[in-house]
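Hello again,

I reread your note about wanting to compare the complex against the isolated chains. To keep things tidy I'm splitting this into two emails, and this first one only covers the full assembly. Below are the input lines as submitted, including protein chains and any nucleic acid or small-molecule components. They are followed by the predicted structure of everything together. The single-chain runs will come separately.
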Amino acid sequence: MKDKISSLFDNEFSDAELDNLLSDVTKKKSHQQSWAYYQITRDVLSGNYVSSSPMTDKIMDAIEKEPTQMGGYVHNSSTTLRAELNYLPHVFAFSVLLLIAFMVFQSPINSASSNAVLLVQDEIPSEIMQAHFAHTATNASYFVQTGLTNAQ
Amino acid sequence: MTQRFFLLLLSFFSSSVFAQTDPWQFILDAHQACRNLNYHGVLQAEHLQEIRSLEIIHAKHGEQEYTRINTLDGTPSELLSQGNATFVYGTKQDNVVIQKRNQHRLFPAVLPKSTSNLKKVYQIDMGKVDRVAGRPANVIILMPNDEYRYFYHFWLDKETSIPLKMIVSDHSNQLIEQTSFTKVNVNSEDDLSWFKPDIDLSKEYVMHEEEDFSANTPRFWKMATIPEGFKEISFRVTRISGPNVLNHHLIYSDGLASLSLFIQPVPKGQKPKQGSAKVGNTNISAKYMKGYQVMAVGSVPQKTVESFVNSVSF
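Full-complex prediction:
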C-alpha cells in the first residue's frame, strides 16, 4: 500500500486506480498514516505545506505583529492612497492629534545616544546569532540546528 | 612535419602538466565534484567547541542536485535540498518545525565556482599528500593577503577532488573550525529512495516561514569602503517578534569567509550595545547610531567585523 500511495504522489495512477486507492486509504489507520506521511513530504518539497493552525488566527496574528520601521517601509497599495485623499482634512486633523500624542508619550523607538552599554558575550541577542548561522554556516550541524528561536 | 608534430605534442604535454599542478584548478575541480558526483558519508563537524556527527547523502539526478543531511547526535534534525529549495526539519518540544532556507553552502560543497575573487585576496599553496577517511588526499592551503580573513586548509580526495577535510585557522595558527569525513563512499547509483524526511506522525509538523520585507524596504544607510574582496551576496528584511521591529540582514562573502551585518531600530526600554565580543570563535562588533543598532557577526577576525560596523552611516 505504501508503494501505491507513493506512486499516487508521483502521478502514476489512472482515474479508476485513484478511486480504488482513495477508498482503501480511508479504511485502515496505517494507510491513513502513510497518506499523511507522503502528503507532508510532497507538500513541503513543493513549497505548498501549510501548518494546521486556523487561517484566521494567522491573519489576526499578522495584523497584530505589523512591524515598526523607522527607515521607511514602503506600502504599495494605490487603492488605500485614493481612499485617504477623500478624507484628507480629517486625516490632517487626526495627524495633528497623533503628533501631540506622540510627543506626550514619546517615540516607541529608543533614540537616546548616551545610554548605550558595553557589548558582553552573555547579552548578545540569540536571534542575531541564529540568523547568522542559519544563513552563513558551512558547518551543517549549525545550519540545521539554528533558526528555531523564533519558531512557533 | 615531424618537428611540428613534436611541438604540438610538447605543447599538449605542458598544458596537461600545468593543469594538474595549478593549485587553483584543484579548487575548481572540487567545486564541480561536489555538485556532480553521488556520495554518501559520515562527517564530524567542530564548531564552538562542540563536535557533532552528521550523515550526508548527495546525488545528481538529471540536472537537479539532491542532498539529505541528518544529525546523528543530540536533537534529531535534518536537511533536504532539491536544487535551490532547501528545507530544514528541526525538533522543538512536541513539534517538528520546518523552515525553508534560500541557500546553503555546507561542507563539502564550500568552494566557489570561480576562483577570480579568491585570487585577489588569497595566495594558494600545496602541502604533502595526506590520508583522510581512508583515502589519499591533496592538501591545498589558502593564505590571506591581509588580516581581514583566516587561513583555509583543504584535503581534496585524489581520486574525485571532493573535499574530505577542512580546517580554518587564524593568524596565530589557532583552530577556528574543523569539518572532516570519517567515512565516504562515492557511487553512481541512480536511486533517490533515500530523499525523504523521517516523518514522525506522533508529532505535529509546523511550517515556520519568515516573511521577507526586503522588496519594499529602502536602504536608508550608506556603506563606506569595506575590506577588499567582500561582496554583498544576500539582503533580507525580517520581523523580530518580541520587540516587533524590522531586522535588516546583509550577508557579505569573499568566496570563503562570510559575515552578517544587522541593522535594526532599538525599541524603547532596550539598551543598545556598543563594543566587541566573542562567542566561541565567532566575532561580534556592535555600534549604536541615530536610534539604530548596527551589529556585524562572523567567523572572521575581530578587525573585519569592526571594519563593517564602522563603514555604516545614516
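For quick reference: Residues 2-52 of chain A form one domain.

B.
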